[in-house]
Design goal:
403 residues; alpha+beta; elongated; 18 helices; single chain
């Protein structure tokens, strides 16, 4: 091959190489039309492709692909058909409940006590209060098929129906995700949840004190939270703990001579069965069980020497430890005594001889003067300023006789 032919061959090769590279570059660089189409596809959703809202995107952030798949596949209407039919007309409520249900159902995404607490706070602060009015307005029979459906679906969400006299009164919380709580929660967290679930049981029924077992549970769990200090949970239940301890101990016998029986009532000097009727079997068990509670001796003392009046007392004798000018002050004083294990469980509003209404923080009260004298002498050993006040009873009012 001569030099001219060789040069022509090389020129042809370079020309072919340049054409090939130019073509390749054009294929890799999208045209303006292609870029515009891509932008349009991004901005205009395809109706056949599910749209994930920002809340779901935020919820799925950081999850493994399989978890993301489970989140996107969750269908509230299929998982909770009864609740869906009930609330589908309220878009905001449906969104709240379905988002919460999604998190409960995808429990494998919960990895800490903080996750659980956050979820339960949503239940208590948003779901229960916002969903309750829907159930309060239902004409729902406890034995109906719908009641069973709602009860089952709500229980899977850690929610229970409350009722009285066959009427729905609202919703409260119930145990859920128990395995996760056991595996992820601290001891204090578990006591806290046991406390609020026991408290929830006190909200149903015509007679709130007919079964004192929930109050006993609240006392035991609250006491454990006190012992595990510092923790973030006792403060959340402290008020109800004091109330549970008060209801458990602020009892008195009401003697009905005509029926030859005695009933036990909670609070002040009440004589009406409704809604104050209670039982002492739970307290008797608590006083003897092996819980080691610091309040066992307190309860035992009250059971062995309980305040007592008749169904229609004319006069009663009140053993007064101190006076308070407001109900809140009297209640707080009783709580202070009870926490110390001192059996001073009562406070009663009395119209004093000077015409003022005050609250007596009381050790005991009786219709019998002899029993009252014995109680006064007993308590004076520790509280020498204790006094005996005789009161006339007019309906639910007490009036001090004398000054």
């Amino acid at each position: 091959m001569n030099k001219r032919s060789l040069l022509q061959t090389k020129t042809n090769i370079w020309a072919l190489a340049l054409i090939f590279l130019t073509s390749l570059a054009c294929e890799m660089q999208p045209s303006a039309n292609t870029a515009a189409a891509s932008t349009e596809a991004t901005e205009t959703p395809n109706p056949e492709v599910p749209v994930v809202d920002s809340a779901q995107a935020q919820q799925s952030r950081g999850l493994d692909p399989q978890s993301n798949l489970r989140l996107s596949e969750f269908d509230f209407s299929s998982a909770f058909p009864g609740l869906y039919e009930l609330i589908k007309g309220d878009a905001a409520l449906l969104g709240e409940v379905s988002a919460y249900a999604q998190q409960v159902e995808n429990k494998e995404n919960l990895s800490s006590e903080a996750d659980l607490m956050s979820l339960f706070q949503i239940r208590e602060q948003t779901i229960v209060p916002n969903l309750s009015p829907t159930f309060e307005n239902l004409d729902l029979e406890p034995s109906s098929e719908k009641w069973e459906v709602y009860t089952d679906e709500l229980s899977r969400l850690g929610i229970a129906i409350t009722g009285a006299e066959g009427i729905v009164t609202g919703l409260t919380v119930s145990p859920v995700l128990q395995e996760e709580v056991k595996n992820l929660g601290s001891q204090a967290f578990q006591h806290y949840l046991a406390f609020i679930y026991a408290d929830a049981k006190t909200l149903s029924g015509e007679y709130p004190f007919s079964n004192m077992s929930p109050y006993k549970e609240m006392i035991v769990r609250g006491e454990q939270l006190q012992k595990l200090q510092p923790n973030a949970y006792f403060e959340k239940v402290e008020k109800r703990f004091d109330e549970a301890l008060q209801y458990f101990t602020d009892i008195h016998l009401v003697n009905d001579p005509t029926a030859r029986q005695k009933t036990v009532l909670v609070g002040a000097a009440n004589t009406e069965m409704y809604p104050f009727a209670t039982e002492t079997e739970t307290a008797a068990e608590f006083a003897k069980d092996g819980s080691g509670s610091q309040y066992q001796e307190l309860v035992s003392k009250i059971l062995s020497n309980t305040s007592e009046i008749s169904t229609r007392p004319e006069n009663i004798y009140v053993v007064v430890i101190e006076w308070a000018t407001s109900e809140d002050m009297a209640r707080n004083r009783v709580h202070t005594y009870l926490r110390k294990g001192t059996d001073i469980p009562h406070y009663l509003q009395i119209r004093r001889g000077d015409g003022t209404d005050q609250f007596a923080v009381s050790y005991r009260f009786y219709e019998s003067a002899d029993k009252a004298d014995e109680a006064l002498e007993k308590i004076k050993v520790d509280y020498p300023d204790a006094q005996l006040v005789m009161c006339s009873v007019k309906g639910e009012k007490l009036y001090q006789l004398g000054i």
